[in-house]
Amino acid sequence: MSNSTITASPAKDAKPEKAKKPASLWSDAWYDLRRSKVFLFGAALVLLLVIIAAFPWLFSPVNAFDPSTCDLTRARDGLDGTHWFGSDNLGCDTYSRVIYGARVSIIVGVVATIVTSLVGGALGLLAGFFGKWTDVLLSRIAEIFFAIPSILGALLILAVVGRDNAGIGSVVLALSLLAWPLVLRIMRAAVITTKNQDFVLAAKALGAGPIRIMIRHILPNALTPVIVVTTMNLGVFIAAEAALSFLGVGIQSPDISWGLMIADSRNRFLEAPAPLLFPALFLSITVLAFVMLGDAVRDALDPKLR
Amino acid sequence: MASKGEPVLEVRDLVKHFPLTQGIVVKRQVGAIKAVDGVSFDLHRGETLGIVGESGCGKSTLAKLLMALETPTSGTVRVAGKDLANAKGADLKRIRRNIQMVMQDPYTSLNPRMTVGDIVGEPFEIHSEVAPKGDRRKKVQELLDVVGLNPDHINRYPHQFSGGQRQRIGIARGLALQPEVIVCDEPVSALDVSIQAQVINLLERLQNEFDLAYIFIAHDLSVVRHISDRVAVMYLGKIVEIGRDTEIYDRPTHPYTQALLSAVPVPDPEGRENRERIILQGDPPSPANPPSGCRFRTRCWKAQEICAEEEPLLQIRPGADHPSACHFAEVHDVVHAS
Asked: By its UniProt entry, which Pfam families does this protein fall under (chain B) (predicted)?
């Protein structure tokens, strides 16, 4: 903006959309993102995967949950016109199973991300803002969870839950329980940096209460690093869900999960590679898409990397 | 100019010691930084008190104490007769309406995620009894107009303004609650010289318009002289000399004031050659362990034994017309040129 704005006569009719446009960090970031090939590619892939997860029947003529579509006589058949990705040990269509398996991955990724962001973010805000004993208590609890190796910890939690009760809910629970301390730490650090800034002091001098200061002044200015980590975490959670299902403690049959499909077909891999390769390929693409998205968001939001 | 009557701000024996602690689990106090150590002054309606001193002398801590952003170790701050320093909750909130602040750095004192309308209107949201909801937007626009900003820019964000304009936004925020006292903590030191003049003129105009009293903290002596009715000179947490601007600038009696004034740049190449320069030796002592007696004695050319033994009180000395905290106070004009 030029310095002439102070003396300029109100030229509001001239460019009304420019005056309204909040040329803030977010709009700058959005401007960068729209020009980033990595972001556009990642976002397109994620969008496609979300649509697949929401409406799998649009992509697959066969309902993978219907056991009558499986034909044992055609088990481990190669690729052909009816079974595009071949068929698995039970003669079920791999293509439709891959399509229907997207839902579990997306749900686990998104829900675990939301839970960890809300829990870790809220506790991090409290720990950073109030400091002292609140901070000591919350940070130590977080460190206890942080010290547990993630896959081992998740295995343990899911073993306690038991195979009969295992499913999307327990996988989300296990992943969230182990991942929220990371968000807490990042939020806490960002809040501590923000709370010492002059505008927070100015709000205090006006007589603003702690809730107003937290919500109106600190949170909006401390959110950026949390958003970056959150976007990156999506891919990590999806990979972790597949790993847990592969190990047999995550999603259980008859639910469909890419990790479970890989586990089921690993013993006959040399005989019929298709039922293992295709879910693995989709898993890789999904994780890659979210990691690309996270990378692009970080590049756009982190001024230090510019 | 200074009108007599009830002072709008009374500060008495204000002390702020920051404890120095040792140990990680069990903290024990091993000393204290004496940032502000026994400061008293009065401020009347429509008056400006300039506070000068070098970095680390406690000016900004004093400002924070006046704004109740720090709790004083002892002493009182009375705003319009009510004790601010020891008030809590709703009382404190009510008293705050009478004392507001303009901060030093216009780039960090405005929330970058809020529009100008939200920033200037926030005082009304916090003190909702001041302005009914429907009027707020109009009031904010009036305030922007008063400080010389375009009221149509109410939806813009701080980074869309220049430094001087941002400082005007900060001033508008300070004015919103119609306070009687505004504490200006180095309000122009982050601005260009040309913009400094604009902001100072604005502050003077607002003072006349609203009968405001200013505490004007700065280290630029010319700026302080220009705007102040009275000036207090601080050294290591204490006021060493206080008086009307002419008394301080033309007839300084404390050696520190004299040294400070002799360092003011003079816009006259010839006079600059001949005038006296008092150069102080050494650094200011640590406020954690100030010298006994007079705090300035370690750097003072007049120091005698009595200075180490007896603390000089801030009082009117023989041969002077305003209070000075020096045993050997005498008038010595160092800046006659300016």
From this structure: ABC_tran, oligo_HPY
Question: Do residues B258 and B331 make contact, with C-beta atoms less than 8 angstroms apart?
Answer: no
Contacts of residue B76, Cβ cutoff 8 Å, sequence gap at least 6: B10, B11, B12, B13, B14, B83, B85, B86
In whole angstroms, give the CA distance from residue A65 to residue B194: 76
Question: Would an 8 Å CB–CB cutoff place A227 in contact with chain B?
Answer: no
Quick one: DSSP state of residue B291?
A: P
> Is A19 close to B156, i.e. CB distance below 8 A?
yes
A273: containing domain: 40-55+84-305
> How high is the ipTM of this complex?
0.82
The shortest CB-CB distance from A22 to any of B108, B123, B157 is to: B157
Instruction: Count how many domains chain A has.
Output: 1
B89 touches A at CB < 8 Å: no
- State the CATH number of the domain containing residue A98: 1.10.3720.10
Q: With CB atoms and an 8 Å threshold, state whether A202 touches B170.
A: yes
Whether B8 and B44 have beta carbons less than 8 Å apart is answered as yes
Q: Which of residues 98-117 of B touch A (CB under 8 A)?
A: 100-101, 103-105, 108-115
- At the fourth CATH level, the homologous superfamily of domain B9-21+31-251 is P-loop containing nucleotide triphosphate hydrolases (3.40.50.300)
SS3 track for B15-77:
EEEEEEEECCCCCEEEEEEEEEEEEEEEECCCCEEEEECCCCCCHHHHHHHHCCCCCCCEEEE
Tell whether pTM > 0.80. no
Q: B58-101, pLDDT tens digit by residue?
A: 888 888 888 888 888 888 888 888 888 778 888 888 888 888 88
What does the block give as tokens for B70? 């720090």
Mean per-residue pLDDT pooled into runs of 10, chain A (306 residues):
42 40 64 82 88 82 72 70 71 81 87 92 91 88 87 86 80 89 91 88 87 88 85 87 86 83 82 82 90 83 58
